[in-house]
UniProtKB/TrEMBL annotation:
Keywords: Membrane, Transmembrane, Transmembrane helix. It comes from the Bacteria. This is Integral membrane protein. The chain crosses the membrane at residues 15-34, 54-73, 80-101, 121-141, 153-171, 177-196. The keyword Oxidoreductase does not apply. The keyword Membrane applies.
Amino acid sequence: MGHWLQRNIIEPGKLPLLLALTAFVLTFLITRVITRLIRAGRGPFGNVKAGGLHIHHVVPGVVLAIVGGFGAVASSRHGLGSAVFAVLFGMGAGLVLDEFALILHLDDVYWTEEGRKSVEAVVLTAALVGLMLSGFSPFGVNDMSQQELNDRGSVISTVVVNFLFSLAVLSKGKTRMAIFSVIVPFIGLIGLVRLARPGSPWAKRFYRRRPRARARSALRAYHHDRRWVGPRRRFQDLLGGKPDPTPDRALGR
């Protein structure tokens, strides 16, 4: 383990990234535990208020992210300073993305159905950073030989082509696949050959006069959502807590 850490993390200068990712995940998990205890009225924790104003934890998160980000830019890549600033940035990012849904909706939707977007943002960010930590570079640059890397034209063309692939996948309504294809272009190729989701820009443009393609697209989306919506919601509930029922659901409507 020590040899692997030295060769794959420390020597390439990825220790700050590992520390930031660890701090990011731990901060999110600890924050969710505390907020769930506050929600249940258990433990010594409570909402932070100043002059009757509820201070959401996104506020200290922004401060920590700013300090950690600017500190990391100003410090050297190696040394204790970079490690400290990486941890601060990871903690700040964890606090900010834990309330991503509040920023998106400009409303306190933390324990609502819309609040699930925060959990999705955290999981997606952790997965992408984990891929980068494993050696994946954006737009498939990691797959190029040293000679190709030395050729600026090859690098630019590879980035542009893979970026267009990601945009095409995004236009098919496959947001997650498009984001991951930035790091792993092969995912983008899979998204390109699969049917677009109903209502996506791709489907509106290319399936408009193809009723069979529209029907197949709708059927595939239905089966996909039916298969994965349940496990995804249970996973989100496990990480972030179950949202409050909406008034309609509470009344059995």
